[in-house]
Amino acid sequence: MLLASLSPTLTNVPNLCYHALPTTKASIYEFLTGRYSSPHTSEVTWDWTEPQTVGKTMTFGARFFQKSGAPYPVSDGDGILIEILHEGVKVARTLEFSGNSPTDVNLVRCSFTVHKSGTYKISIMVGGRHIRDSPFIKSFDPGPIDPSKTGFMHYTSTVVFPSGSKHPLVIETRDSFGNLAPYRADHKAFFKIKVTAAGTKERYNPTTQIIYNTQDKKLVMYIKIDQKGCYQAVVSYGDVKLKNGEFDILVLETGEYNKVIKNVYKQKSSVWHMARLLSLNGEKLEKPKKVFVYISPKQMTIKEFCFKIYRRKLCTFRVCPWTKFIFNGVSNQFDAPTFVIEDGSQQSVELAAQDRNIIAATFSSFLLKSIGGSETFNDKRDFFNREIQSFHDRRSHNTLLLKIERSSLLSSSYKVTKPLSVNDWCRRFEISFIGEQGLDWGGLSREWFELLGKELFDPNCSQLFTRFTDNPQGLVHPNPKRPPDKKVKLYEFAGKIVGKCLIESAAKRTQLVKAKFTRSFLAQLIGLRVTYKHFETDDPEFFTTKISYIENNDVDDMELTFAEEVYDTQGQLVKVVDLIPNGSKIAVTNSNKLRYLDALAQHRLVTPVKDEVESFMKGLSSELIPENLLSIFDENELELLMCGTGTYSIADFKLYHNVVGATASFNRVLDWFWTIIASFTEEQMARLLQFITGSSQLPPGGFSELVPKIQLSSAPTYNSLPSSHTCFNQLCLPDYDNMETFHHMLLIAINEGNQGFGLV
Questions:
Q1: How many Cβ atoms from other residues are within 10 Å of residue 262's Cβ?
Q2: Cβ atoms within 10 A of the Cβ of 310, count?
Q3: Residue 527 class from Cβ within 10 Å (0-12 exposed, 13-18 middle, 19+ buried)?
């Protein structure tokens, strides 16, 4: 009768409940005598006291007892579930069943890493039932303020305000893991600003006031300067400069400031100021010229009067973030402050002008208006997306069906999109693969973009792009030696596909370009001048063996000329190409070697792909993306805009790696490894990948396309730093006492190792 009355209850217990169903005499006996795990008699001990800050490995233990009160021996087959949630997202954890001591047979230890501040919900269940007091709520505070992660919101490199007024600078305080961190003023660490007059080392002490909002963790530093002029400022926390803590300050008289604001508001194109031209095309002028500086919302032009009638244009600078002002001291000859203008695409100029500060303030105000009011990447990206949506709002947004032949993806896609108008490119594509069933609810279009991106940009596919190195993680560059059937028109098509991806992303249908472009190619897309420094990222081997050697050594005895020798595949000299007019007759010396290296960069990185870049730009900017919007980014930011930061799938990593030297102790370290990196930020994952492979970017296909695959191997050391062999994609992990020590050592290795520490 007892069993009959119990059976309805027992049949409702899930199968994973601690051998719960009494189907044998032994199990019935254990059930009746209380020799099974009881959730209500379990105990939890926490290895930390509250409050705790982020950045640590946390461990706690749960002991399980029988109904009778005796310890219950636990194993991973007892239906014990420990789940940790932070903001609804599961946190990776490692479980260890039973300790080494006989008294720990009923112990389960759980470890997890904490990088995000806030509350964590910890559920401990047996057979689907919570133990006593579960779920537990644990809170973790942000770490101390980290100046390298702390910076200004809506940052601008030039701050303009009238004299005698208080100007607010908003600072977002963050810890080393990116959490908003509280500010507590004390005598050890506080925010301070150092101000010097431009072109001198003369200190100026502005009036400052700091107000901290504890609710949103934002700090406002008000600065007041009574004396008009140009200043250079550095804001630091403690003795460490903030991540964007260096900027210029232009203080104008109230009347001058109001005039600048009025000109910018009205977008006047006739604003001009007189100046003296001191240098042009990188050379000092023996006799400085009287010139006029014209500023409009789009460009700044320097002109001179010829015969007192005709205005001749000397040079033009675009109003964009990479046009920079360098403020110097006062010219004794003209009793006027001097400044240099450079934009990375042409030779700099030096000017002296009484209205220097007004010129720079007008330019800066036009610039901020054109890029949305801030020079941070996130703010510029948001502004770009808003402008793209506004630019295409008047166009049709209904869907457009494209029928694609999967077996000839590139040619089929090119053929079907060739007759499309700009209006059609702005419509939402609906993809149908010929001969395949399926409706496109977004998945087929994403697949098409991904497959087409691989065909266009993977050197192993269409060969439209190539690498300067055999490394499969190398950056890709237009291929001037592509197969004869790959016409230059395909680059225009590639540009349109990239433009389409940007339009999709602006419409919050994120579509990233799966490619890693050379920095010199990206620089050409936005009009930046390609220099020899681009070799460092684009062709590292050539940079190391030739460029860096010439840059850092005496070249007078090298017998170099401004010419490049071209050899065939057999090593025979084919021809000698002049890098500049009559270059083979001009010797390279220590005084002109940087000019030689820049000429070499033009010869190798720019000239061979001129047609390809022009065709790509025609597809990208002339039809889909306004060129002035592209120009608000530099080459690194443009890659982030088009390609994203890259996503790192831990599940993908687990599928595509090899383990060398697996032992019981090393398997324990591997379990800790997966637990630790599961809580890594994207930046930490990028650093880990760079530590292992030498590159922070994955191939388009993710971990599966790494050659060779990442090898996780046991190192014959103990409690020491991990090391890596980047040429083999190998990470060597020592044995550790506990997960907290391992976590600490791994962070040191990946943060310092990318600068030469721990790499082999």
A1: 10
A2: 9
A3: middle
Select the more confidently predicted residue: 461 or 10.
461
Mind listing the pLDDT tens digit for each residue in 64-74? 888 778 888 88
Contact 295, 289 (CB under 8 A): no
CB count within 10 Å of CB 701 equals 14
| Closest by CA position to 216, among listed 166, 168, 174 | 174
Distance (Å, whole) CA 545 – CA 600: 14
Strand ranges across the sheet with 299-306: 310-318, 299-306, 283-295, 271-280, 349-352, 336-342, 324-331
Q: Are 147 and 236 in contact (CB under 8 A)?
A: yes
Report the distance separating Cα 643 and Cα 388, nearest Å: 17
Residue 641, sorted as left (phi over 0), alpha (psi -120 to 50) or beta, turns out to be: alpha
Which DSSP string do the residues of 611-662 spell out, in sequence order? HHHHHHHHHHTTTTS-HHHHTTS-HHHHHHHHH-S----HHHHHHSEEEES-
Evaluate whether 271 touches 261 at the Cβ level (below 8 Å).
no
Report d(CA 293, CA 13) in Å as an integer.
84
In degrees to the nearest 10, what's the CA dihedral of 191, 197, 198, 201?
A: -90
Residue 59 one-letter amino acid: T
Instruction: Dump pLDDT digits (tens) for 630-673.
Output: 889 888 888 888 887 566 788 788 888 999 887 888 888 998 99
Count of C-beta atoms within a 10 Å radius of residue 427: 18
Confidence of residue 252 (pLDDT cuts 50, 70, 90): very high
Distance CA(692)–CA(682), nearest Å, equals: 15
Tokens of 357: 């500060």
Tokens of 107: 């112990």
Buried b (16+ CB within 10 A) or exposed e, 655-681: eebeeeeeeeebebbbbbbebbbbbbe
Instruction: Count the Cβ atoms, other than its own, within 10 Å of residue 61.
Output: 16
Helix (H) or strand (E) holding 551: helix 548-552
Higher pLDDT, 48 or 570: 48
8-state DSSP, 606: I
**Residue 449 belongs to what H/E stretch?**
helix 443-457
Return the residue matching tokens 């990479």. Answer: 322
CB atoms within 10 A of CB 203: 9
**What six digits make up the tokens of 227?**
């004396």
Place of tokens 């709002």: 393
Supply the pLDDT for residue 410. Answer: 94
The whole-angstrom separation of Cα 290 and Cα 489 is: 47
Q: Can you tell me the distance from the alpha carbon of 750 to that of 686, in angstroms, rounded to the nearest whole number?
A: 9
Q: Residue 89 phi/psi, 5° resolution?
A: -105, 135
- Is the pLDDT at 239 greater than 70? The verdict is yes
Give residue-wise pLDDT tens across range 24-39.
343 554 554 445 567 7
pLDDT of residue 2: 32
- Distance (Å, rounded) from C-alpha 457 to C-alpha 133? 56
Strands 80-86 and 89-90: antiparallel
3 state DSSP class of 447: helix
Q: Identify each DSSP E strand in 358-484 by its residue range.
A: 399-404, 428-433, 465-467, 476-478
Any idea what the Cα angle at residue 192 is, between residues 250 and 149, rounded to 5°? 95
Cβ neighbour number for residue 536 with a 10 Å cutoff: 14
- Which uninterrupted H or E stretch holds 598? helix 593-601
Looking at 501, 643, 727, 732, which residue is catalytic?
727
pLDDT value of position 156? 93
Pairing of strands 107-114, 151-152: unpaired
Whether a cis peptide bond, with omega within 30° of 0, leads into 39 is no
Q: What is the largest CA-CA distance in the chain?
A: 120
- Known catalytic residue: 727? yes
